[in-house]
């Protein structure tokens, strides 16, 4: 066998020394009870210094007797599958792929073993150091990953039921969330590549990835991330000041920032891993929805359906997640119809009595936060959603006011209270854009919600929703709130056959899922779509507002009590994702 253009110094000799007989003879001896050559064959296949020519010769012999490789030779096949074929010469890769196709065609009993072999290579070797910026090129991870996907697609062509066996293996091989960012990034990237050429697995793959990301998300609260990052900056500044005092360094030298606090790397370890995965997931969403830079409507709709299903199953029931839900936020920014479909979906969940109250409350939180924070939503959409929420709240008040349950109790009225929060939260962020078009109509619309004081006094409590400023001329509401205790919420409960018991508690935990996004690298895609909090307008503008005049503004302004958000800031830089799933392979 000759290889054209072979390099004499770097190419191993084609004639190599081997012991024992060929594979056919070895299998015949094994069948007769002589296992000496059989064990020798396994030993030679497991040689870490095996040469390309040896691999090719062994694989060719295996292909010639593939029909004899029954379940009795399971250990031998497992050793053969572990041959180091990735990153080898094209001849080795081609021969190995041919061996795989012949094996799964003739002996489907080895399908799981072949799939496990491929998936195990979706992660970089654990023997490589974590800092592999230089070694990436040496070990050529992108090329190795391409060869793995080539093998997986080849198996899928010969065994149509591959997808049924593949998903459990993908779940089993998912690395622990405590693994390095590089390991998680490689594996998630390869999972999403599988979802591209096996569309039937896409929803399951997204569910697997998002479930792992949620574990990271809930273990890294927004406040904790901000504290760690701020402390890192303070420590860096303190160190620079000490160096200035000790060495009197030049100003230009001191301005050089080489620490993690001055880069896009998160100091918080969990946030760093989550940020890395968010970059990969958002890049996948963008690449799946766009073809040659143009939005593909049908592909986008299909991906939206999958993400909404994952949202209902995993994200919506998860309390205190801070960042994973932005995947759907980002997708909805591609087309207004998607954003409106998402709002309609949340609205159906909120008003459906067949769903658990906790999910209805969460849907209200998502609805209000999305209306307030998505700057790609036009005011007509925001107003239309308020036109749905406000009458629903009125009907709820009318249905409860005359009954025996007309008292504050989150267990009974939780969805209502969260819907109130959604309305007020939306007004706080979007009141300027809502009212500037038609002042009289806009104010009249939302005053209807607060018009009948006799019906709503039992509902107003500052621990249930934020107070509305005197700026909206809702004086009676403000007076009621001032009379209430600002620290505890009176709740009346009664057991079956027992007396009503009044207790003081504060069970309503305000949750606005699209509060500020604090991950550094992935925020480059979120920041252009995000409505940040802006300072209240001046006193002169307030006077004009109360006289019925709308002050000029270039953006959406708002005001809110300080209890809504303790740390509001804009995410950092603006940019585009570095990863493409449809046009180029993985790059670290």
UniProtKB/TrEMBL annotation:
One Pfam family, short name: RRN3
Superkingdom of this protein's organism: Eukaryota
Q: Name one GO molecular function term.
A: RNA polymerase I general transcription initiation factor activity
Which InterPro entries does the UniProt entry name for this protein? RNA_pol_I_trans_ini_fac_RRN3
* One GO term (biological process): transcription initiation at RNA polymerase I promoter
GO terms for cellular component: nucleus
Coiled-coil region list: none
Q: Where is this region: Disordered?
A: 560-588
**Similarity remark:** Belongs to the RRN3 family.
Q: What is this protein called?
A: RNA polymerase I-specific transcription initiation factor RRN3
Q: Specify the species.
A: Oncorhynchus mykiss
Classification lineage: Eukaryota, Metazoa, Chordata, Craniata, Vertebrata
